[in-house]
Amino acid sequence: MKQTQSQQRPKRYGMAIDLDKCTGCGSCMVACFAENNVSFREDETNKLLSITWLRVYKMTNDKPFPDTDVCYIPRPCQHCAGQHEGHSPCVSVCPATATDYSLYTGIVSQIYTRCFGCRYCMAACPYHARYFNWWDPVWPTGMERTLSPNVSPRMRGVVEKCSFCFHRYQLARDKAYTEGKRPIREAEYQTACTHACPSGAIVFGDLNDSTHQVNRIVRPDPDNHYKARNPRAFRLLERLGTDTKVYYLSDREWVRQAGDNYLADEQPGTIGPPRGGSH
Amino acid sequence: MLPFLFEWVWDMGHYVFHGAVWAVLSIIGMGMTFCIIKSVVDTMQGKTGHDPHH
Amino acid sequence: MDSALIPEGVKRCSLWKFLLALALVSAVLMWGVYAMLLCWVKGLNQTNMNDYYGFALWIWADLAVIALGGGAFFTGLLKYVFGKDELKYIINYAVLIGFICYSSAQLILGIDVGQPLRGWFIFWHANVHSMLTEVAFCLTCYFIVLTIEYIPLSLENRQIKKVPFFANLTHNMHSAMAVFAATGAFLSFFHQGSLGGVSGVLFGRPFSFREHILIWPYTFFLFTWSAAAFGPSFTLFVTWLTEKITRKKLVKDEVIHMVAKISGWMIITYIIAKSADTLYWMFNTAPSQGLQWSFFYQNNPFYGKWILFTEIFICGFLPGLLLIFKATRENPTFRVTALVLGIIGVCLNRWVLVLQTLAAPVLPFDSWVLYIPSWQEVATTILPIAYGVILIMISHRYLPIFPQERELNPIDAPPASVVSRQPAPTAVVEGQSA
Ligand code: SF4
Ligand code: SF4
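Above: inputs. Below: predicted complex with iron/sulfur cluster.
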């Protein structure tokens, strides 16, 4: 895609989530809801119809007591880059160019006013990160005054998803620009979930910038589809070739194994090159 | 669909895809235009359409 | 009462009977229209789709009707491009069925999208790399072609063709038909294929992802092939059904047998290719993504290995074999059984590629999710069937759809009112082949 914004050098915003620190409290989910004007209904029991840009899943190792272990895994949009930058599962299929991959930030955007609700992107996303507005968004009286003016609410019939709090990026970018076109500082652009996590499990920043904490934790390898060099780190469904920007960390072998599908005789990490669309 | 829209890129994908689309639309359009004009002419010449074919 | 509109030399039921039947089908149609309006006014919350099932019954119905409507392009291709002239006796009906299938698909898509008023974005802001874009463009263009193919047929009506301009137009359009048919075949290759590509390119979905040739996944080629194979089967089946309902022979057996034979060979070759593709997926593609093929057929109450077996053997090889052997092909019971099995098979294939793809979990900590359509979805899917029946009823009553009908069903004592029996009708009807 043609890019209209100009930036100093391509960024690759991404996240590292330490699953050994995550307690599954759900603060990130709540923060995300509030920050991004996510709509809700009176009855949210059917989770297949709830909009949760960031969803915390619960996994267990399926072992009987006393070996039972539980892990919570927060799942925002993974901002997939695909096998070649921009060939995300969802972006590559959207017929109306209503979701786009920014080569300057690595963020997968969603253009609500352009999406016509075909939901092909939802079928394409293996992480279930995309949500459809099945209903008109309605906020209880008075509550619309709590909506953030920086994020447009979505109408019925379109798809929405985590934007890595892109409006925060825009604010930081504008500020940096007015202050002498200086680069954006790490602390200036942080997502709402990162701020909200009480145990500091989420770290956010530019994966290409070695001064950013996320880069130092993950140590992504640009020559190998940004695979993490930190042995504690893994990505979800890495072998599908989605090349995601959300990394998870854990000391527990079973947790790392649960990030991908493996045949019985395969060891995590011994897999071949990832597959993916070729165009 | 048109080159001035922001998502337009001058690349192979667009050449092939839109090349084919516009070619097909032209064929269909010209074919129909031909049929209609010829029918108007035929009608004015007093043909009834029931003449033996070929 | 409407005898002035009925083609000469054929017999139709009384107008009252016709209107009664029309009213019955229209009642079903209205039920569908009501559901459609509900979906448009209240939104897609009227369906049982959810965030795991962004695609469901409707997309399946789209894929299925377009595969079944494939008879139009394939018969057209064989007749106009490869010169199989006998097909002129069935092509009108193939075109009509194709027209119904494609208009239905457009209608269903119009209900399926969340923002129907923005439907034109798919053309205006087209992402040329998306399979759905290719589908939208080719489908629309091909629908225009089908309309063009249907126009001369509708102008064949006894009263309309009295107008010299329309008679000339019919004549001229017949002359140009080869160009339109060839364009239609070209478009069909692509949109049938792209519909297969829709699921084949989903590299995030190991169940449907397939390796590519250039930019097209294997499913692209399989879909085109299967539409060319099962589309003619569907045309034959509907013809058989029409013959049963009208209690008349409408197309000669030679023509039926010929189409059945072509369909049979297409089915057999297709199902061999499909089997090869399935084996490659089972032992290569799926394992390379860390999944045993059997994973996709267990741990859920519905999608078992039976579905694969049914699709490939019972509804693939079996109908194919029944249609290629002369003895079974020319036996009406076997032939119709084969046609029905084939139709089920191709519908099952489309179902599996849309629904099972979404049902199977991809994240290791996720689970299977099944789906049952809501009544609104069912009603809106039946809506196009009712619409198709109505269009067939009207077309059959007032247009010479079946060129051989007069010959096969001679009216012994022509009613006194039909005085001027010119030899014209045969000539005009045969004009299809001009
Ligand atoms: S996680 Fe899903 S929505 Fe996000 S970029 Fe990847 S495919 Fe698209
Ligand atoms: S639902 Fe919207 S964003 Fe998703 S593929 Fe369709 S038009 Fe694109």
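Residues 1-7, 275-279 of chain A have pLDDT under 50 and may be disordered.
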